[in-house]
Request: fold
Amino acid sequence: MKTRRDFLKNLGLLSTATLLMPQIGLATTKKSGYGVQLYSFRDGMLTNPKKTLEQIASLGFKEIESAGSSKGYYYGLTPSEMASTCKQLGMSLTSGHVHLDDKFEQTMEDAVASGQEYLICSSLPTEGQTIDNYKSVAEQFNIAGEACKKRGLKFGYHNHEYEFESENGEVLYDVLMDNTQEDLVHMELDLGWVVVAEKDPLHYFKKYPGRFPLWHLKDMNMHEKVSTEFGKGILDIDLMLKNKELSGVKHIYIEQEEYANNPFKSMQYNMKYLNNI
Reply:
Protein backbone atom coordinates (compact mmCIF):
# COMPACT_ATOMS: atom_id res chain seq x y z
CA MET A 1 0.00 0.00 0.00
CA LYS A 2 1.26 3.45 -0.89
CA THR A 3 1.84 5.52 2.26
CA ARG A 4 1.68 9.27 2.77
CA ARG A 5 5.46 9.18 3.19
CA ASP A 6 5.77 7.55 -0.25
CA PHE A 7 3.54 10.23 -1.74
CA LEU A 8 5.59 13.07 -0.28
CA LYS A 9 8.78 11.45 -1.49
CA ASN A 10 7.41 10.91 -4.99
CA LEU A 11 6.09 14.46 -5.20
CA GLY A 12 9.52 15.75 -4.26
CA LEU A 13 11.11 13.66 -6.99
CA LEU A 14 8.58 14.91 -9.50
CA SER A 15 9.27 18.50 -8.54
CA THR A 16 13.00 18.00 -8.95
CA ALA A 17 12.56 16.34 -12.34
CA THR A 18 10.21 19.00 -13.60
CA LEU A 19 12.59 21.77 -12.60
CA LEU A 20 15.09 20.31 -15.05
CA MET A 21 12.60 20.70 -17.91
CA PRO A 22 12.04 23.95 -19.84
CA GLN A 23 9.55 25.98 -17.86
CA ILE A 24 6.70 28.18 -18.99
CA GLY A 25 5.89 31.68 -17.81
CA LEU A 26 8.09 32.88 -14.96
CA ALA A 27 6.08 34.95 -12.50
CA THR A 28 6.88 37.82 -10.19
CA THR A 29 4.63 39.71 -7.85
CA LYS A 30 5.45 42.99 -9.62
CA LYS A 31 3.83 41.79 -12.85
CA SER A 32 1.17 39.29 -11.84
CA GLY A 33 -1.00 41.40 -9.53
CA TYR A 34 -1.86 38.77 -6.94
CA GLY A 35 -5.30 38.68 -5.39
CA VAL A 36 -6.55 37.49 -2.03
CA GLN A 37 -9.53 35.40 -0.98
CA LEU A 38 -11.32 37.42 1.69
CA TYR A 39 -12.04 34.34 3.79
CA SER A 40 -8.43 34.80 4.89
CA PHE A 41 -9.58 38.01 6.63
CA ARG A 42 -13.05 36.77 7.54
CA ASP A 43 -13.24 38.17 11.08
CA GLY A 44 -12.06 41.62 10.08
CA MET A 45 -14.36 41.71 7.06
CA LEU A 46 -17.36 41.08 9.31
CA THR A 47 -16.29 43.60 11.95
CA ASN A 48 -15.14 46.48 9.72
CA PRO A 49 -15.02 45.62 6.01
CA LYS A 50 -13.77 48.99 4.73
CA LYS A 51 -10.92 49.22 7.24
CA THR A 52 -9.95 45.61 6.54
CA LEU A 53 -9.91 46.28 2.80
CA GLU A 54 -7.58 49.23 3.47
CA GLN A 55 -5.21 46.89 5.33
CA ILE A 56 -5.37 44.38 2.49
CA ALA A 57 -4.57 47.09 -0.07
CA SER A 58 -1.54 48.16 2.00
CA LEU A 59 -0.08 44.68 1.49
CA GLY A 60 0.04 45.18 -2.27
CA PHE A 61 -2.95 43.12 -3.35
CA LYS A 62 -4.67 44.20 -6.56
CA GLU A 63 -7.56 41.76 -6.79
CA ILE A 64 -10.21 40.60 -4.35
CA GLU A 65 -12.27 37.43 -4.21
CA SER A 66 -15.20 37.56 -1.80
CA ALA A 67 -16.75 34.69 0.15
CA GLY A 68 -20.01 33.94 1.90
CA SER A 69 -20.50 35.29 5.40
CA SER A 70 -23.22 35.83 7.98
CA LYS A 71 -23.69 39.26 6.38
CA GLY A 72 -23.89 37.97 2.84
CA TYR A 73 -21.41 37.79 -0.01
CA TYR A 74 -20.38 41.44 0.42
CA TYR A 75 -20.00 41.54 4.23
CA GLY A 76 -22.89 43.92 4.85
CA LEU A 77 -21.95 46.27 2.01
CA THR A 78 -24.03 46.53 -1.12
CA PRO A 79 -22.44 45.05 -4.26
CA SER A 80 -21.78 48.54 -5.63
CA GLU A 81 -20.32 49.72 -2.29
CA MET A 82 -17.96 46.76 -2.30
CA ALA A 83 -16.84 47.56 -5.83
CA SER A 84 -16.38 51.28 -5.23
CA THR A 85 -14.46 50.73 -1.98
CA CYS A 86 -12.04 48.37 -3.74
CA LYS A 87 -11.64 50.83 -6.63
CA GLN A 88 -10.80 53.69 -4.28
CA LEU A 89 -8.06 51.51 -2.80
CA GLY A 90 -6.58 50.57 -6.18
CA MET A 91 -8.04 47.07 -6.13
CA SER A 92 -10.80 45.33 -8.06
CA LEU A 93 -13.42 42.78 -7.06
CA THR A 94 -12.92 40.11 -9.71
CA SER A 95 -14.48 36.99 -8.24
CA GLY A 96 -16.74 35.72 -5.48
CA HIS A 97 -17.55 32.40 -3.83
CA VAL A 98 -21.26 31.63 -3.87
CA HIS A 99 -23.74 28.78 -3.56
CA LEU A 100 -25.70 27.31 -6.44
CA ASP A 101 -29.13 27.42 -4.80
CA ASP A 102 -32.64 28.82 -5.13
CA LYS A 103 -31.25 32.35 -4.69
CA PHE A 104 -28.85 32.08 -7.61
CA GLU A 105 -30.84 34.48 -9.78
CA GLN A 106 -30.33 37.23 -7.20
CA THR A 107 -26.71 36.19 -6.78
CA MET A 108 -26.14 36.79 -10.49
CA GLU A 109 -27.89 40.16 -10.38
CA ASP A 110 -25.73 41.25 -7.44
CA ALA A 111 -22.58 40.09 -9.23
CA VAL A 112 -23.47 42.21 -12.25
CA ALA A 113 -24.04 45.19 -9.95
CA SER A 114 -20.65 44.62 -8.29
CA GLY A 115 -18.82 44.54 -11.62
CA GLN A 116 -17.13 41.24 -10.83
CA GLU A 117 -16.24 38.78 -13.57
CA TYR A 118 -16.53 35.37 -11.89
CA LEU A 119 -19.07 33.57 -9.74
CA ILE A 120 -17.39 30.53 -8.19
CA CYS A 121 -19.50 27.78 -6.65
CA SER A 122 -17.80 26.92 -3.36
CA SER A 123 -19.35 23.49 -2.73
CA LEU A 124 -21.27 20.77 -4.53
CA PRO A 125 -24.97 21.63 -4.84
CA THR A 126 -25.96 17.99 -4.21
CA GLU A 127 -24.23 15.47 -1.96
CA GLY A 128 -22.97 12.08 -3.03
CA GLN A 129 -19.50 10.79 -3.75
CA THR A 130 -20.61 8.87 -6.84
CA ILE A 131 -19.97 9.13 -10.54
CA ASP A 132 -23.68 9.59 -11.18
CA ASN A 133 -23.90 12.55 -8.80
CA TYR A 134 -20.84 14.21 -10.30
CA LYS A 135 -22.30 13.84 -13.78
CA SER A 136 -25.53 15.37 -12.49
CA VAL A 137 -23.60 18.22 -10.88
CA ALA A 138 -21.68 18.77 -14.11
CA GLU A 139 -24.98 19.29 -15.94
CA GLN A 140 -26.14 21.74 -13.24
CA PHE A 141 -22.86 23.60 -13.67
CA ASN A 142 -23.28 23.76 -17.45
CA ILE A 143 -26.75 25.25 -17.01
CA ALA A 144 -25.51 27.76 -14.43
CA GLY A 145 -22.61 28.63 -16.71
CA GLU A 146 -25.00 29.34 -19.58
CA ALA A 147 -27.12 31.59 -17.34
CA CYS A 148 -24.03 33.49 -16.21
CA LYS A 149 -22.71 33.83 -19.73
CA LYS A 150 -25.94 35.54 -20.82
CA ARG A 151 -25.32 38.17 -18.13
CA GLY A 152 -21.69 38.73 -19.00
CA LEU A 153 -20.46 36.65 -16.04
CA LYS A 154 -18.32 33.52 -15.82
CA PHE A 155 -19.34 30.59 -13.65
CA GLY A 156 -16.84 28.26 -12.02
CA TYR A 157 -16.14 25.72 -9.29
CA HIS A 158 -13.63 25.61 -6.43
CA ASN A 159 -12.40 22.19 -5.32
CA HIS A 160 -11.63 20.81 -1.88
CA GLU A 161 -10.02 17.49 -1.00
CA TYR A 162 -13.02 15.17 -1.33
CA GLU A 163 -13.53 15.66 -5.08
CA PHE A 164 -10.37 13.63 -5.65
CA GLU A 165 -11.84 10.47 -4.17
CA SER A 166 -12.55 7.65 -6.62
CA GLU A 167 -15.41 5.36 -7.52
CA ASN A 168 -14.80 2.29 -9.67
CA GLY A 169 -11.31 3.52 -10.46
CA GLU A 170 -12.48 6.94 -11.68
CA VAL A 171 -11.42 10.11 -9.90
CA LEU A 172 -14.58 12.11 -9.27
CA TYR A 173 -12.92 15.44 -10.04
CA ASP A 174 -11.98 14.07 -13.46
CA VAL A 175 -15.62 13.09 -14.01
CA LEU A 176 -16.56 16.70 -13.28
CA MET A 177 -13.90 18.00 -15.66
CA ASP A 178 -14.87 15.61 -18.45
CA ASN A 179 -18.57 16.47 -18.27
CA THR A 180 -18.43 20.27 -17.99
CA GLN A 181 -18.15 22.58 -20.97
CA GLU A 182 -14.91 24.53 -21.02
CA ASP A 183 -16.60 27.71 -22.24
CA LEU A 184 -19.26 27.57 -19.51
CA VAL A 185 -17.52 26.21 -16.40
CA HIS A 186 -14.25 27.85 -15.40
CA MET A 187 -12.34 25.89 -12.80
CA GLU A 188 -10.65 27.45 -9.79
CA LEU A 189 -8.00 24.97 -8.70
CA ASP A 190 -7.13 25.08 -5.00
CA LEU A 191 -3.55 23.85 -5.18
CA GLY A 192 -3.37 23.22 -1.44
CA TRP A 193 -6.31 20.83 -1.35
CA VAL A 194 -4.99 19.02 -4.43
CA VAL A 195 -1.78 18.03 -2.64
CA VAL A 196 -3.66 17.16 0.56
CA ALA A 197 -5.66 14.73 -1.59
CA GLU A 198 -2.30 13.24 -2.62
CA LYS A 199 -2.60 14.41 -6.20
CA ASP A 200 -0.19 16.52 -8.23
CA PRO A 201 -1.42 19.86 -9.64
CA LEU A 202 1.01 19.49 -12.55
CA HIS A 203 -0.81 16.31 -13.58
CA TYR A 204 -4.00 18.35 -13.92
CA PHE A 205 -2.26 21.20 -15.75
CA LYS A 206 -1.06 18.65 -18.30
CA LYS A 207 -4.26 16.61 -18.52
CA TYR A 208 -6.51 19.67 -18.82
CA PRO A 209 -4.26 22.45 -20.18
CA GLY A 210 -5.79 25.88 -20.04
CA ARG A 211 -8.78 24.77 -17.94
CA PHE A 212 -7.85 26.58 -14.72
CA PRO A 213 -8.21 30.36 -15.12
CA LEU A 214 -8.28 30.79 -11.35
CA TRP A 215 -6.10 29.40 -8.58
CA HIS A 216 -6.12 29.39 -4.84
CA LEU A 217 -2.44 29.56 -3.99
CA LYS A 218 -2.31 27.89 -0.60
CA ASP A 219 0.52 26.08 1.19
CA MET A 220 -0.46 23.17 3.41
CA ASN A 221 0.88 21.55 6.55
CA MET A 222 0.38 17.89 5.66
CA HIS A 223 0.67 16.64 9.24
CA GLU A 224 -2.32 18.63 10.42
CA LYS A 225 -3.99 19.20 7.03
CA VAL A 226 -4.22 22.94 7.63
CA SER A 227 -2.98 25.91 5.63
CA THR A 228 0.27 27.60 6.59
CA GLU A 229 2.56 30.41 5.49
CA PHE A 230 4.31 30.00 2.14
CA GLY A 231 7.38 27.82 2.24
CA LYS A 232 6.39 26.12 5.48
CA GLY A 233 4.27 23.40 3.86
CA ILE A 234 4.42 20.89 1.04
CA LEU A 235 3.42 22.96 -2.00
CA ASP A 236 6.27 23.81 -4.38
CA ILE A 237 5.10 27.36 -5.03
CA ASP A 238 7.99 28.29 -7.30
CA LEU A 239 7.29 25.28 -9.50
CA MET A 240 3.57 26.07 -9.66
CA LEU A 241 4.25 29.63 -10.80
CA LYS A 242 6.67 28.43 -13.45
CA ASN A 243 3.87 26.36 -14.95
CA LYS A 244 1.05 28.87 -14.70
CA GLU A 245 0.71 29.36 -18.47
CA LEU A 246 0.17 25.63 -18.93
CA SER A 247 -2.71 25.80 -16.46
CA GLY A 248 -4.27 28.81 -18.18
CA VAL A 249 -4.42 30.82 -14.93
CA LYS A 250 -5.43 34.48 -15.15
CA HIS A 251 -6.22 35.21 -11.50
CA ILE A 252 -4.21 33.92 -8.55
CA TYR A 253 -5.84 34.38 -5.13
CA ILE A 254 -3.79 33.74 -2.03
CA GLU A 255 -5.78 32.02 0.70
CA GLN A 256 -4.72 31.10 4.23
CA GLU A 257 -7.26 29.82 6.71
CA GLU A 258 -5.04 29.26 9.74
CA TYR A 259 -2.21 31.52 10.94
CA ALA A 260 0.96 31.44 12.98
CA ASN A 261 -0.05 34.82 14.43
CA ASN A 262 -2.77 36.77 12.60
CA PRO A 263 -4.00 37.17 8.99
CA PHE A 264 -2.19 40.45 8.36
CA LYS A 265 1.24 39.18 9.48
CA SER A 266 0.78 35.91 7.61
CA MET A 267 -0.07 37.75 4.39
CA GLN A 268 2.90 40.07 4.89
CA TYR A 269 5.06 36.98 5.13
CA ASN A 270 3.46 35.42 2.05
CA MET A 271 3.88 38.51 -0.11
CA LYS A 272 7.54 38.84 0.95
CA TYR A 273 8.02 35.17 0.06
CA LEU A 274 6.60 35.75 -3.43
CA ASN A 275 8.73 38.84 -3.97
CA ASN A 276 11.81 36.78 -3.16
CA ILE A 277 11.06 34.11 -5.76
Notes: The chain has 13 helices and twelve strands.
